[in-house]
Amino acid sequence: MGWKWRSLMVGDEEDYLMLSGIQHFSFCKRQWALIHIEQQWADNVLTFEGQLLHEKADDPLIKESRGDRIISRAVPLVSHRLRVYGVADVVEFHRCDEGEGGISLPLRKGRWKPYPVEYKRGKPKPDAYDELQLCVQAMCLEEMFEAHIPEGALYYGEIEHRVRVEFHHDLRNQAALLLNEMHELFREGSTPEAVMAPKCSRCSLIEICQPKLAGKRASEYMRRYMTAVEKEGIGHA
């Protein structure tokens, strides 16, 4: 199958979410809600370095052809089934044999397999935050091209190396479950409460989130406040 241009039209649907949000959501549900529901954001050194790394990858004017590989950057993505949209840093198209599936491309002979590549600043993480984001990109491409995409890659700036990612059933299922939960919270407009954790120190929203206040009950705060009021005689003539 060739490119389905009509698949890129999101239209007036208001419940489509940014697919990159699954990386935030899997890292911290509250962080995702602060960004995507409450529209709050703050840069730190980590996010700034990430922006620099993406500058070349996100240049839509750059398109390269290297033998049996075509490299397209800043590729728009959408899935109407998952109700998400976004942009892939890089989608490579690898030439393949007729029996290997693949798709047809405009003005190109033969068959080509889409291969998404996402750029990240640091190094591979113990959790699957980045793998989930890349997997959703692949699921979007599969719907757009009507093709099966078994794998992609994450490029990490700190190690200057690619890490292969297999889009296996468990990863796909986890991504679908998280997206369903994201849509539910988005419809409710609900922001989860803060939970202090070691990873909070790496979050650019720590000053907005204030996780150190987590667990401090409002009733306890009011009790202390009223005690102070009575002690100081505030509000009395």
What this model shows, in words?
- Strands 1, 2, 3, 4, 5, 6 and 7 form a 7-stranded mixed sheet that branches.
- A hairpin with a 2-residue loop joins strand 2 and strand 3.
- The longest helix has 20 residues.
- The chain is elongated, with a radius of gyration of 22 Å.
- It contains 7 helices and 7 strands; from the N terminus they run E-H-H-H-E-E-E-E-H-E-E-H-H-H.
- It has 237 residues and is of the alpha/beta class.
- The chain has 2 domains: 188 residues, Lambda Exonuclease, Chain A; 44 residues, no CATH class.
- Helix 1 runs antiparallel to helix 2, helix 1 packs antiparallel against helix 4 and helix 4 crosses helix 5.
- The relative contact order is 0.17.
- The N terminus is likely disordered.
In brief:
The protein is α/β, with parallel strands linked by helices and 237 residues long.
Point out poorly predicted stretches.
1-7, 43-52
Residues in helices, as a percent range: 25-40%
Total number of β-strand segments?
A: 7
Percent strand: 15-25%
Keywords:
7 strands, alpha/beta, 7 helices, Lambda Exonuclease, Chain A, 237 residues, 7-stranded mixed beta sheet, 2 domains, disordered N terminus, elongated
Lay out the secondary structure.
Layout: E1 17-18, H1 21-27, H2 29-36, H3 45-57, E2 63-66, E3 69-79, E4 84-96, E5 111-120, H4 129-145, E6 151-156, E7 161-166, H5 169-188, H6 206-209, H7 218-232
Helix pairs in contact: 1-2, 1-4, 4-5
